[in-house]
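Memo to structure team: turn this sequence into structure tokens by end of day. - J.P.
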Amino acid sequence: MDQEKVNEATIAVRDLADFMARMEMPKWSERYRSIEQELLAGNIQGAVNLEQSIFKAGMGGLYDLYISAGNGHPTNDPDADNKLLNQLTGRVSQSFSALRKVLKGYAK
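Reply from structure team:
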């Protein structure tokens, strides 16, 4: 396994979990912390499986999240926080795509 890809995924997941914790979204943060723990333990397939199991599309999914004070988030700048959320989820998506390719033997 390419350790650089694992490190990138670990950092991406940690950054997203930290951000979600700051935005007071504990259930989302916990999901990504569990993925981080699998990566740190060397269980790459387990981490990939957990990441794939997260409900992303549709009402209530990851991509449906919207940060705002009205939704109970501690934000002073919802536009900037939502932009950051999109960037962080994009990094996680890209890093896990790279891990899946390595696991399937498509990349080194």
